[in-house]
Records
---
Amino acid sequence: MSSWRLLLNWMKSSGVSRRTILRSLLATTVAQLSANALSIGAPLLLCLAWTQQHWDNPLQRIAVPLVIIELLAFFRSPLRYLDRMHAHRLGFAAVTQWRVWLTRRVATWSFRSTANTSRADLLQQSIGDIDHLQDVWLRVTIPLVASMVSFLISLGIIVEVLARQSAGVQGEPLFIGTLLLVALLVFVILMSQLNRAVRSVRVLRQAHQKGFEELFDRAQLATELSLLGAAAQDQHFDQPQQYEAWQQAQSRVEIWWRRVDLALATVSGTLVVVASSVAIKDIAFTSTETSNTIVLGVLAASLTGELFAIWRHGLQAAGNAVVTIEGLEARGETSARERGGESWPTKVTEFNVQDIFACTPGSRIAVVGPSGSGKSTWLRGVANLEHAGATMLANSTYLNTLSENELRQHVGYVPTEPHFLGTTLVDELTLGRTNLAPWVPLATAFGLSTDPSVRPSECSRGERHRYALVRAMVAEPELLLLDEPTAGLGNDERQLLIRALWASKATLVITTHDPDLIAKCDVAIPVETFRG
Amino acid sequence: MNRSSRLESILGIVSTLVVLLAAMLFASGIAELFSDIHQTGFASIQIAVVLRLVTAWVVSATLHRLRHGIARRTREHLWQLVRRPNGPDVAVLDSAATSVRDGVGVRYLASSAATSLLGLIPVWYFGGWLSAVIFLALIAASIPFYIRAGRAAEQSSAAVASRTALLASTQLRTLDAMGDMRSLGTIEYASERVATASRASAHTNLEGIRVAMGSALITEFIGGAAIGLVAMVVGFDLLHGRRSLEHSLLALLLVVEINARVRAWANAFHQREDAAQGVLRLTEQSIAPVTPAVGPALLTASEVTVPSSRTLVTTVIQAGDRVLITGPSGVGKTQLLRALVGLRAPFSGTSAITARPIGWVQADSQLFTGTLRDNLCVKRPVETSDVLAVLSGLGLTGARFSDLEQVVTSASQYSDGERARLAIARALLADVVLLVIDDVAGLFDQETLHTVANELARHSDLAVLEAAHNRRILGAPTLEISLERA
């Protein structure tokens, strides 16, 4: 059940308007109905017309159903077109919302223990996962609901048509009731198998990934050993167990689905056989009306075959979607605060750096320590980008009382490796923020180009870093946290950067190894000082 | 492969004949019920239903077995390919193997569609020549549309794919920058950017789907119209008493069945193409020809390029050279390295290499099952003290590295950084003349970086070729090649 709840929650979070959903449901239901009408309704109509006693004109008896069939055949493909277009529109609208969700969520990931390469993989995988989630609407919800609705309507139409034909026959209510009950039962049983489906998908994906990794590792090793000229490399390769296991898992899962298919087909086939038996037994077959009832049984029961197939594909898509969602929700290291769902405190306090670092505003503070002593982590913690940091900061409660928005207003942070969105200069530097200082003089002070067509993401490493400083400084924060601002820069570039930085009114907290920079600061504090 | 495709064809022929028979039984069953011959009619319908069920089951089971067999053979082939040293692209191989596997059943569909056309004979017989001719003519007329639909789908899928790739790269950039965006308090701005890109892409996608579906629907339309016209023909015959109800129904249901089979085959258009391409990819994994260089040069490259960069690389690497290749990620640094050492053909230009053995160190260096000594001394036996000296030179000390006889069961026993250093050690112990380092500096902290750089500096005869993204091992390269995006 929890898997269905998960899907339901995600559907709710997609924030698609009710109108879009209804339109898509309607389109799919109508398309489904027209398909039913053509495959089941057409022969029924022909037969009924043939046995129709009330129409005297034989031309009418045939022409009316034929015209209806013809219309159905002609309208089927445009209906199907509308169905698909509406469904895709719905899927795309939902995916847009989920992409926004992912973007916000990634902002809380810390990537601390994640190497650079796997970080990209992680993001790429999440992006792909979100793309596939279209199926939640496209292949699960819409088909399941629409098929059920169209099934009920089809039954209703058949009953109505036959009731007009053969008043007084008692067989229909019993038969239709049984049929509905069986269909409902199959639906419940099938959908209760979601957890099983989820498990099968999970096993398959894990096995695939493991198998693929193994294959990949072998390819890497083969390259390395052959370039070394190592002979007899074959002896270093053992059997591809994981890859083998994947193939077997795939085969097992396939067999399971095949069994489900067989079970459904058997139920549907049995329904046809039993339905007609019941109808024959219950009703003395003496009249044409009776035959109509039997035809009803056969035709209505054969509707279930189509219905079950749609449900089964819905189940499979649901299983895939659940595994994808679980993966998305579990991915990324989020801070304890976010994971616990704890909201940001909203109490507004006057921001005062003096209380935090026990220094006068506008000081330049160097935070020093050997490589690997956790300077960067500490700084990220101060910027509240890392939950571990808060405890390391003296008077940390003070920063924690600020809401996220206020914190960002007062505190600027520039990492060693800044990232940009990949657009042009003005957008990159302003980022939709208001109340900014003019960026042109700042950029000029840092010796940067102010040509609006420049893309900071494509600039050299040093320029990127300086653009990131400008980006943070235009918001005029009172406290500016800088992570190794001079690392990897040439001497001229370093002097320029220090000069421009020192022109700022903000309090600077700088983690660094650079002796020149340390010498320029008012005070150098070892990072250990801040550990409780 | 021949045997299994023959089996598929036979399966398609037999199952289609059975299904056509079932359709005829079903039709006559209904007709009999209407003529109040209940017992026979009832039996016919039941037999038809059971026949269909059994056929579906046999087909599904046989195809599964075939698929399993092909998967096994493909897997073995794949395994042989991966062992080969030319560094095939594993992702391409894997997807090729999958499409070959998924291609099972296409031949079944083809033979089934062909066989179903035999059903036109009873259609002719029961429904009259006009029915058969109308149906055949419309199906034939829809063939060019099928082909066009396939092409349109292909084109639009290419357009959609490029748009999707664009969206993915926008997203990737934005997601990558989200840490910065949070520190700047601009999460909303960034997510709005993603939403805008997503909406733009949805628009293109819908347009692509519209084009592809529009084309495909014409064919569906023709199919539906063919059935409708046949129904019209037999209906009027029925009306004028020229045809019995049974014959009319027989013709109609057969036509529906034939149409379904032909459509199923046509819809497998992409599956068919993919499978064929998969086979092609698996069979033609060529090894790039390596031209031996002459003279003292270890490696001579002349105007070598890779697809994603516009930089022409011309260089001669000699003993003791330190060459650094830089450039943004995705510009093709790894591809260039592979092209330079002859693991793949360059996009253009030529590369000649005499250097053997070559050390190849990458971010995901692997270890095989065996002792640590086996893993390190792959070329020749080396004294324990020499091995330990190299290891400690690279900063690999402590109990985990001092016992060379310990068995490595899984590469994940060591961290990525340690494995990269073990790969360097393996290369140094194999007396390589050229060490190729593919962007591993990011795995080391500052201190380790210095240690490794110092160790490499001690080997003054060794030529080092390093590709680096932002951090680098080579502090003072003798040559720096900067790749620019195309």
---
Amino acid sequence: MSIHADTPRSMPRFLWAGDSAVVIEFGNEISPALAARAHTAAAAFESANLPWLVEVLPSYRSVLAEFDPRLISPAAALEELQRIAETAAIPEGPASLDQLDIVSIPVCYGGRFGPDLHDVAAHTGLSPDEVVAVHSEPLYLVYMIGFMLGFPYLGGMSPRIATPRLATPRTIVPAGSVGIAGNQTGVYPMASPGGWHLIGRTPMRLADPSADPPCLLRAGNRIRFVPVDEAAYRAIEAAAATTARTDAPGIAAIPAQAEGGDQ
Amino acid sequence: MAAMLEVVNSGPLSTLQDLGRRGRMKYGVPPSGALDQEALAVANLLAENPEGAVGIEITYGNFSVRALAPVVLACAGAWASVSVDSIAVSPWTTLSVMPGEIVSVGAPAWGVQVYLAVRGGIAAPLVMGSASTCTRAALGGIDGQGRALRAGDLIATPDRPSPSPSPGPGHVPSLLAASTVTARAAAALAKRQAAFARAHSPAAASARCPVAIRVVMGPQDDHFTDGGRRTLVTEEFTLTSKADRMGLRFEGPAIEHSRGADIISDGMPRGAVQVPGDGKPIIMLADRQTTGGYPKIACVARVDLDLLAHLRPGDRVRFAALPAEEAHESLIHEQAASRASGRALRILIDGIEHVVTVCELQ
């Protein structure tokens, strides 16, 4: 139920999600500009350190904010969230890249790490090397984390390598697998059943339930897939394992590299 | 850590639960936690624990444990027979149990989830701040990796600087101690009894009452026709066998969408009533995925969320919509009433003990 009937186009809509949560919706399309507004509003809600705010979940074009009804009424929570959303420096256009975290994810493409690379090549009429080149070229936007711990919904894949899902899903997809389903690409942070065509695997540990935060990627991050050979894969895997054994945070972050150029 | 109990029979599904993981949905982590949070709180208070301590959520009963040390236990939730060495004691009460004695929770007469609390709490690894079991995401629980309880598991209380007072001998159920706890337990029991005692009576299904669930419309009620919205609040829906800690799938007249059954995926609030293409509503519970792509016509009001824990396949449900602020007032009023000084009377009917609450309402 829309709380305000006639909101101007540039203003977000505030929608009840029960009596202890509100959805702040910025529009109804998938675009980096709308996502930037949602992600910025979510960051503003979080940095306000409101004791009654329980969950803040940014997604493609909205934010779900859940509050503790023992601490605040729906009307008061709505008023406070509206005030923050209005005063937050919410960009009207895409944020400039130098403000964003860019995470490089090393991927060993093909072979036993990417058993479906040849199928994707056959489907798209490209060579396997061309599929790798097209997949590792863009700077992808993490629109949302969902589906499972640390799973990034990515935008920016070239339609040239779009490939339908597998007719029969695999019962187990290893953690770190990089896949294509339709015109989406993604990386499985944890082992899971899955129907995506697997074209490679990253040795990077993207999720660890015992770490805080438990996953590397956040909504609003930009990521780039960097092709590596199997020797480099093994070296990164070994380094990550050492880090996990000797250091508290189990997630080995590759230093972000600031690169220009959007897809 | 001192092992207090050994699981003898784990029943269909028994898991460790507290009040769940908070603030982790943005990482894709389901909140999990007890489906009936007030019943867990009451069981804990009866056991003299903090209300959010880890307890055992027992689904459909048929659960038993053997005491390895003198231990105080408390049950709340669904109305199930509880026995100590085959001697029936009343549900919703505190038990002092001696080593070697076996405490059994039978199949509930009404309701689904029984909560068993152990004085001193239950030791379990904290995963993202909670011990709650999420089997689907392999998080929390007795092993930290989402495993449900099974026969042979040892339940221990965590080490504490000051040990809790040791229970006296015998297993005579102690009367509910503090009057505030008594009143809160009585109010919670009365609400669940009113909702489910007749819904789950042995009478013919047609004679059973539907369960009333209050909802707040939105966030995507504008993705439905007027007729679709009317269908939700005027028709009855029947819970199918697709019911677990993740969600409840209903059968009933199709709820009509106005512009397709797909939305751009967004956050999934607790109690969301999402409607996929077939028009049949699904209510999302504690172990839900954090995001979803079906429109959510309404969300269950906080005041009735706990009732969802006790719905059984075949139960009929009627939804009633109310504004968010009214739903919140109902919740606050109910909490205030259950914490007011009330009197709880125990009466025996046909050998079954019932608790009747007498409250002064303003």
